[in-house]
Specification:
The complex is a heterodimer of chains A (107) and B (115). With 107 residues, chain A is mostly beta strands. In chain A, 0% of the residues lie in helices and 47% in strands. In chain A, a hairpin with a 4-residue loop joins strand 5 and strand 6. Chain A starts with 8 loop residues before the first strand and ends with a strand. Chain B has 115 residues and is mainly β. In chain B, strands 2, 4, 5, 6, 9, 10 and 11 form a seven-stranded mixed β-sheet that branches. The chains are: A mainly beta (107), B mainly beta (115). Chains A and B meet through strand 3, strand 4 and strand 8 of A and strand 5 and strand 10 of B.
Chain lengths: 107, 115
């Protein structure tokens, strides 16, 4: 079973930042937090991952709470191409997907 | 490397027929995963391999499903005696298992329609 909790859907305006929350209260000390997204009619795509420290890459930033029980994926400037389902996952030898958050971007 | 490739991209089959799908992972990746996804749902884990060893199978994987990765490179997923409920997107992913954590790369999937 998925070990993370995310809102079912979120909406954001184009060119504005988006903060996608994820709760993972049962996280263990060795679990990495991964984010993937799935665009329509495509396979999931890796976005970012981290363990304890905040992480940045060209796609997004990952902010991890100090107690690691929650995290936030930050898209700094959303575009229409960022409309997708975003999955927050605790990596445990394999990816177990939950329902994810469907992100709608308004032009 | 062109990423994870799956073949075929689409398959229509009659109920009761057998089907086989192929996945070619990224060449240096030692882990390979299979998932199934139905409309509106997140992908469901089916099974995964490390090299040629099948390390875990989901309870979702009935006896009609079998997966192989004979030489630790490509993998096949076979469904015997297909049923309409098997209609779904079948996704393959690969990753490299080493120290720490690494990302998985997914293929575009094989869409199966059982009529």
């Amino acid at each position: 079973d998925a070990k993370t909790t995310q809102p079912n859907s979120m909406e954001s305006n184009e060119e504005e930042p988006v903060h996608l929350p994820c709760n993972h209260s049962t996280i263990s000390g060795t679990d990495y937090i991964h984010w993937y997204r799935q665009l329509p009619s495509q396979g999931p795509e890796y976005v970012i991952h981290g363990l304890t420290s905040n992480v940045n890459n060209r796609m997004a930033s990952l902010a991890i709470a100090e107690d690691r029980k929650s995290s936030t994926l930050i898209l700094h400037r959303a575009t229409l191409r960022d409309a997708a389902v975003y999955y927050c996952i605790l990596w445990d030898d394999k990816i177990i997907f939950g329902k994810g958050t469907r992100l709608h971007i308004l032009p | 490397d062109t990423g994870v490739s799956q073949d075929p991209r689409h398959k229509i089959t009659k109920r009761g027929q057998n089907v086989t799908f192929r996945c070619d992972p990224i060449s240096e990746h030692n882990r390979l995963y299979w998932y199934r996804q139905t409309l509106g749902q997140g992908p469901e884990f089916l099974t995964y391999f490390q090299n040629e060893a099948q390390l875990e199978k989901s309870r979702l994987l009935s006896d009609r499903f079998s997966a192989e990765r004979p030489k630790g490179s490509f993998s096949t997923l076979e469904i015997q005696r297909t049923e309409q409920g098997d209609s779904a997107m079948y996704l393959c992913a690969s990753s490299f298992s080493g120290t720490g954590s690494t990302e998985a790369f997914f293929g575009q999937g094989t869409r199966l329609t059982v009529v």
